[in-house]
Amino acid sequence: MKAQNKAGPGRIVRNKNGDLVMTFAYQTHFYTNNFSEAYAALIGVSWCCDKNIRNIEMELDSMIVINMIKGVTRPSWRMQNIIDDIQRKMHQKNVTISHCYRESNGVADALAKHATTLQKDKVFLHKEDLPKEAIGPLEWIRCNFRPFEDEQKNTLLGATSPHDSPFF
What SUPFAM superfamilies has UniProt attached to this entry (predicted)? Predict the structure, then answer.
């Protein structure tokens, strides 16, 4: 999709038991993989903030974007406002950020790829409404989900396409 200048941020929000709360697939203009990843993180954390969800653990598979958000690496001028917005929202709602591996990011990856085919943004609140490509990875996650030590945590996971390193 890079050739068509399309990117597809996708995210999944789960509760402390690993159950689906919300997923989304948005279509956006492609700038860079890191831009798409940060934009998707902003959409996800903004949704959680709008719903007054607190104690969020955000997992991304891009260490570059994680380091930008943590202030370890300086973002490009194009990404600065997005990173600033993420940091502000993280501070307001007790959001932590950590790295996850590509293999555990199948739902968000499927949503990101699906997003590049959409004409408008899509939010999914029920498993039955998900694109078929996301169902299998969702079931895999449910079977292999390990609850967090902090039972009050919610998880925001995501990916961006065409970037093939998903985030889930």
Answer: Ribonuclease H-like
Q: Is 28 helix (H, G, I), strand (E, B) or coil?
A: strand
Instruction: Collapse the DSSP code of 128 into the 3-class scheme (helix H, G, I; strand E, B; otherwise coil) and give the result.
Output: helix
- The pLDDT tens digits for 118-159 are 888 888 888 888 888 888 877 776 676 544 444 445 555 554
Pairing of strands 154-161, 122-124: unpaired
C-beta neighbour count of 89 within 10 angstroms: 20
Two tokens, residue 146:
């390990």
Residue 138's identity, in one-letter code, is L
User: How do the domains of the chain map onto residue ranges?
Assistant: 2-161
pLDDT tens sequence across 62-88: 899 999 999 999 999 999 999 999 999
Type of residue at 114 = H
Nearest to 12 by CA among 151, 110, 103: 110
- Rounded-to-integer distance, Cα 158 and Cα 60, Å: 6
Q: What tokens were used for 60?
A: 């991304």
pTM above 0.90, yes or no: no
Peptide bond into 162 cis (omega under 30): yes
Interatomic CA distance for residues 68 and 79, integer angstroms: 9
Q: 2-161 has which CATH code? A: 3.30.420.10
